Amino acid sequence: MDPLDDVENSKQHHHLLKRPPVDIEFSDLTYSVPQGQNGSKIILRSVSGLFRSGELTAILGPSGAGKSTLINLLAGYRCGDAVGSIMVNSRPREMKTFRKMCRYIMQEDLLQPSLTVMESMEIAADLKLGYTISKEDKTNTIKDIIQMLRLTAANNTLMENLSGGEKKRLSIALELINNPPVIFLDEPTTGLDDLSSSQCISLLRDLAHGGRTIICSIHTPSARLFALFDHIYVIADGQCMFAGVSQDMVPYLSTVGINCPKHFNPADFIIEVCSKEYGDYTDKLSTAVENGKCLRWSQNNSIKKTIVRRASQYDVQSNHLYDFSSTGWAQFTTLLRRMVLQHKRDKSYLFFKLFMYTFMGLVVGGMFYQFGNDASLTIFNYGFIFITIIVFMYTPLMPVLLKFPKEVQLLKREYFNRWYGLNAYFCALTCSQLPMQFILSFVYIIITYLMTDQPLEWERGIKFSIVCLMVSLSSESIAYAVSSQFNVTNSVFLGPCVACPMMLLASFGLGYDENEIPSLIKLGMNFSYLRHGVEALVIAIYGNGRKQLHCGEGEQYCELRYPSELLKTVGMSTATYWGSLSSLCAMFVLFKAASFVLLRRRLSTKPSLLLKLGFVGRFIKTHFNIPR
Ligand SMILES: Nc1ncnc2c1ncn2[C@@H]1O[C@H](COP(=O)(O)OP(=O)(O)OP(=O)(O)O)[C@@H](O)[C@H]1O
């Protein structure tokens, strides 16, 4: 029976159905990374090999040997400056199709916080399977996988409270939902005790024997674990030291004059050999297996001839098998549901934010208490407007700068494993923040607006609120743009640095004749969203024919009793509310677009643009710690 028919026919046991076999062959794979001013460091040196479906393959080697690099290249997670060929079912790997069929479980268990095991599975199922299969089938699939991975007892446990082994099993369970034919795992047993490790490897072996291609890197497996692997690929110094079945390894080592002592774990022994504890055998071993070209070493070395490379089982026609099952809309609604649930669970953070906005409102309201309608204090009321803009710049900025760099790591994993598209994620992220941003902004606005005695007119109040909201949304977008590129430390430093010049340009013009402002600064002012925010707020409060302000009896200094005088004094006499608001909205769209493009760039597996800029790019990348 054609495996493709198998796929098409059975929809009931989605996770059990067979996928077309996928064999991965690589030859003369060389990978280097730039190092120093003009140099580069070679990590993989012309290695070759064949990883077949239906087998559990272990990539073994000492620390720093190049295991993760090899997995990254084969999975397509990093393509960088790799040279050589990677074939999938004897055809050159076509990244677009291959990405759809492989899943990569990274060393670090990056899991969505504040969700239980069951919720994580349900959301992953909604994202990956969409609404194309019935709820019942979906529930059965989830139950089967949870049972298979022995997670039933932890069904209702929050991710934060899971043990290391449970986290690892959950990472695997999440990727099994849509039954990928190829799974890469980077050190799946790290942090697990012996029992959990052997349970994890046995499970992977069962999955592989069910027709999948499973490749994992592993440090020093126990003799028991070692025997569970169908195929061993040993790497050291970026070269292949052995490729074959585990039982062949000891005879292989004897043929090059290295005898493994009796009762010694062969896996430990070869790691010691590769670590040069018995002398440098690197070249000798690499030559003996032709740096991986011999595919499977055996005593008569005939395996190379007998391995039959499968004809291509997938091609453009079967491409659709691995397309997203869920529509963009389904992904959006599921992601939104997940984000809202996580917001709700993170109550302390919500209360903290609410407290912060209330506290800020009371402090600012107290500082400018009843200044709004007092003509002798108009210039100080301008200060209130400016401070309000600063509040709406900083308060949405900092939480994003602190939280998003971590979220990007998670996003990278889910995006790479094709849980959803970036459009759906970005829209859900934007929408999930909006209600809270509305509520928090209004808390601050109502407190300060009333305490500072601003004009109680609906139109002015609404215009004031719209501007505050737009400023906070723009700041948030800047924060997303910055934190999508940098780690937490650099983001927290850089975010305010980007906002600071905008703040200075916003206040420029006070006491100046508009015509006296140097044209370069004027140009800069046009690019400051805070400037447009201040302008729009000042006009919302003082523009549109606001009547003369109240001047207390015996007050000597009441020059600014006419609102138009204030507009002149702060250099905003020619500005209009709608003009400034439009510019603010345009800047918001620009920041939003920039954050989307930068995020897409960050998620891309293509080589960094900075590296293409040669020395300057490399300098920026290394000295400013820009992660991949
Ligand atoms: N971007 C990079 N820049 C410089 N060196 C790198 C880079 N990436 C990897 N390396 C180096 O390449 C070598 C191989 O790294 P890799 O992570 O593949 O090793 P590994 O075998 O997986 O090690 P471990 O078992 O400790 O995780 C290491 O010496 C590492 O320092």
From TrEMBL:
Keyword set, alphabetical order: ATP-binding, Hydrolase, Membrane, Nucleotide-binding, Transmembrane, Transmembrane helix, Transport
Single GO MF annotation: ATP hydrolysis activity
Domain ABC transporter: 24-262
Keyword Hydrolase set for record: yes
PROSITE patterns: ABC_TRANSPORTER_1, ABC_TRANSPORTER_2
Assigned GO CC terms: plasma membrane
Main location: membrane
Transmembrane domains' residue ranges: 348-369, 381-402, 422-450, 462-481, 493-512, 577-599
Subcellular location: Membrane
Top-level taxon of the source organism: Eukaryota
Membrane topology qualifier: Multi-pass membrane protein
Family to which the UniProt record says this protein belongs: Belongs to the ABC transporter superfamily. ABCG family. Eye pigment precursor importer (TC 3.A.1.204) subfamily.
Name the UniProt record assigns to this protein: AAA+ ATPase domain,P-loop containing nucleoside triphosphate hydrolase,ABC transporter, conserved site,ABC
